[in-house]
Amino acid sequence: MKILSKDQIYAADKATEQAEAIPSFNLMERAGGYAFQYIHQRLQGQPVQIKIFCGIGNNGGDGLVIARNLVENGYSVKTYIVNYSENRSEDFLNALEELKKKTTKWPEVLKSVGDFPEIAPEDLVVDCIFGIGLNRPADAWVQQLFRLINESSAYTLAIDIPSGMAIDRIIPDSDIVRATVVLTFQTPKLVFFLPQSGKYINNWEVLDIGLDRNYLNSVKTKAQLIGKTEAQQMYRPRQKFSHKGTYGHALLIAGSYGKMGAAVLSNKACLSSGAGLVTAYSTRQGLPILQTSVPEVMVVTDRHNGDFIEEIQVDLDPDVIGIGPGLGTHKSTQKAFEDFLKVNETPLVLDADALNILSENKALLDLLPKYSILTPHPKELERLIGDWKDDFEKLEKAEAFSAKYDCILVCKDAHTIVVFEGNYYVNSSGNPGMATGGSGDVLTGVLTGLVAQGYDPLTAAIFGSFIHGRAADIAINHTGYEGLTAGVIVEFLGQAFLDLFHEPEKQPQK
Hints:
Layout: E1 2-3, H1 6-20, H2 24-43, E2 49-54, H3 58-72, E3 76-82, H4 90-100, E4 108-110, E5 124-128, H5 140-151, E6 155-159, E7 181-185, H6 195-198, E8 204-207, H7 213-218, E9 223-226, H8 228-234, E10 249-253, H9 260-272, E11 277-282, H10 287-293, E12 298-301, E13 320-323, H11 331-343, E14 348-350, H12 353-360, E15 373-374, H13 378-385, H14 391-405, E16 408-411, E17 417-420, E18 423-427, H15 439-452, H16 457-479, H17 486-491, H18 493-499
């Protein structure tokens, strides 16, 4: 699903108005009407006190349209205009006039803290104070209204975007309405998926308001949300007349004393993601652990007898090499890694200690093969690209790093974002249960296994991130968040592949 920028959303509105030969107010009527239908379908006339807070721009106009429709359908509605400016948009004024035709209870105007109404926990709050045009902190008294809404514990429905949040930047030191649900028009916003801003949103749903399809289909966006539909299109089906050699040979260089679990997890995940052959390269002491824990893999060991890998020499010609899980950063390992990079031409997936070694020896980045996949968690990313003031600068720095070294960055987080060639691929799968040791090792194995099978590195990074998160989503139905472990994620990788083409059972008609 395309994630439109602010300018692209405005352009989509204009394209719709021109294609349908309608004034902008008609589009506001449509958006507000669909939002009303969303509320009405869930309340079904229940006697809930609804408080709608409207700004004086088009988002406030949406709120007035919602209010009018609710009043017409017998709901108890109190509407408030948050008067943060004397300037009103034309469509807001049109919506206000239409509301006045339907009720004598005209909206109350809020100009200061003293005007604020009480908000009860059982109320339904509809937030239409600011839309996507906000680019600075709201006035102090308006931010106090945000805090009042947040502290009320009322169910809060934000229309399009939570008030106080900007669509294209992080506004520092600003309060934001904490929405129970964001009902966003046509497309999700990138800020929904970034740690600094996404924490204000419990859930979001897209409301299709019928923007011009020709524009939406043709516009190229910087960011895309990757869900089941997108993942289905990336999947490579297996052929009947095939064999283990058809699906590639993966080599995983991993493990050291006390960290052999990382090698076990990554090798198991590589197999469970479909690699035809997998060879594990590790320390000699790791041989019995790997042969016992993962009997399906072949094992090659460092000829030294140390607790860590001191030399990487393999008489193999694998299709891809994954390196880093549990590797350690001993000086001898760093030297072995450097020597390996100097001669290696095989595609790479790098994680964990391989990334830590790179961050301490930045010159080694120039030795990476083109389209190498790097999978840093936030701290590893910071070591690679430097610190950042906010999540947007983080993405900009990640983009510059990717361009400089011609690599694919898999920036792991609650919503993993794959960065390559100036584009962001935002993963929609995954859950908080994945915040457990070894999850990243599993991802390394998945990505390595996919590249081995012939997926191009970018597709492997995007598709593999989705499958990894989807396996965890399926697993928590059996374990809960707290009971989820990295090993369980591996066990559910097969279910994640099956789920790609599983159609939900149809509910019987009532």
